[in-house]
């Protein structure tokens, strides 16, 4: 028996096929049947057609060895040796194995997951990132956290992992808040973890939420308020109540004595009223109407205040909690100033809580101009979900020739609130209940994404 592979080496990509030819010659003097079978690491995704050859003495036959590696980690990248076993039926002890090599091309596929998506803790919280290597070659992934300003600190341990084909690796995340919340209920902080695979410029971003409850919950504050009110009421009642004082002392009989009266003592004359006192002084009539101090003819009163000119100024208030107002931080006017939130409506920094809406009917979009910084509109910071203000030419604000990160959609909701949707990323403006910066997040029905715009819609 004589065997040969043509060629002895070949290359194939995962998900495709390649083949080599097997030649078998009967060098015996009897008719023989040869059974053909692929052996080795490639046997799971290779086959021989036909798998049986019947040859007369001196005759030669051929069969095709076909390789079809799947696009999974089962077919690892690189050279893989294989063999084709040729076993005669009549003389099985003379089995032969034709050896060759097939090289499988590489492919990469990565799946990442943040576990869990929502973490909770007063001082810190733990999470983990799972990395599954669905490709057929080893890969390296590194991790980095992106926080919302100084609100959170996200660290991973380890900072990078190497994952074999078909295996998974995990990295632990430590999430710490920038400050402790003592009173005020629960604060939600969004955060992002980037997973960067070696050789790929764009990372995969995983988004989660850190829920930070206060040390003193709201119900405890309510109980303390009730107890304080009761204590105050008790103190008021205690000091206002005057108990009746009585005595049981009695005079002894026969002990009363009159003071001695002498003839030389004269009674003091009773004072007689003077002439001036006898005259009754006239009383001023009560609630006497006084003439107005300022001049001017009657009827119309003072001059009417002129109506304000220019665009209408509006406030934008969240439906979350006590309703925080959207503002430019501390009244700053420079490009890059964060748009924050304030629980109080105040004029401490001027018109930094007032906004001008510019409507563009052709696209049904709006730009939101800060009243304290004319020409500066609400802007989605490039590459982030942070909201800031940025100046734009006045003619562009008027005509609507603005980039998508400076345009917003105002979508009315069934509950009467409004979603402010960024055209740039399709996410909704969310109230974080802090004065650091407003951000955008994937739209849903949570209250922190509902806003009330004064005098809108008109």
Automatic annotation (TrEMBL):
InterPro entries linked: Ricin_B-like_lectins
UniProt KW Membrane keyword: yes
Biased composition (Gly residues): 294-303
Transmembrane portions of the chain: 219-240
Keywords: Membrane, Transmembrane, Transmembrane helix
Record's compositionally biased regions (Basic and acidic residues): 249-266, 276-291
Region (Disordered): 248-321
Superkingdom of the organism of origin: Bacteria
Gene3D superfamilies: 2.80.10.50
Keyword Transmembrane among record annotations: yes
Listed name of the protein: Hydrogenase expression protein
Organism field: Streptomyces venezuelae
